[in-house]
Amino acid sequence: MKRTVLATILLALVFVVGLGSSQAQAATQTGCIVTKQQYDNSPRLVVWCSGVGSLFYSFGPGWSASCSPVTVDTLKLWSSMVQTALLSAKKIEMDYTTDPGCSNVPIIQYLRLTNQ
User: Fold this and answer.
1) Which of 16, 31, 75, 95 is most open to solvent, judged by the fewest CB atoms within 10 Å of its CB?
2) DSSP letter (8 states) at residue 104
């Protein structure tokens, strides 16, 4: 009886962990030529890239955990980097994820300026 219960719990746990990990998607956007950025008090940063269909988001404190919120200081730093790329015509690269709990929008996880 105990083995059956333990086996059922383990099977359910494997299913839940597998289901949860298959929902989020990760990718990298390379060669982004910034055409516009927006930083608002929600707090949220939105980045537009030339020739790329989707917008890229970064969310601050107060947003749900599925939106991978970062600190306000991180948002401001990334906003400065994006503005630098916009004004200097440099490209940026962004590692991002999507999550159904955050409307499947591309959520920036890491942002870097390139030398191009």
Assistant:
1) 16
2) T
d(CA 103, CA 101): 6
Residue 10's Cα: distance from chain center in Å? Answer: 31
- Which tokens is 18 given? 């597998």
CATH number of the domain encompassing residue 58: 2.40.50.50
Give the count of domains, the chain.
1
Residue matched to tokens 């008090």: 41
What are the tokens at 79? Answer: 């906003």
State pLDDT tens for residues 36-45.
999 999 999 9
Instruction: Say if 16 falls within a structural domain.
Output: no
User: Does pLDDT of 21 surpass 50?
Assistant: no
Query: Against a cut of 0.70, is the pTM above it?
Result: yes
Cis, bond preceding 43 (omega within 30 deg of 0)? yes
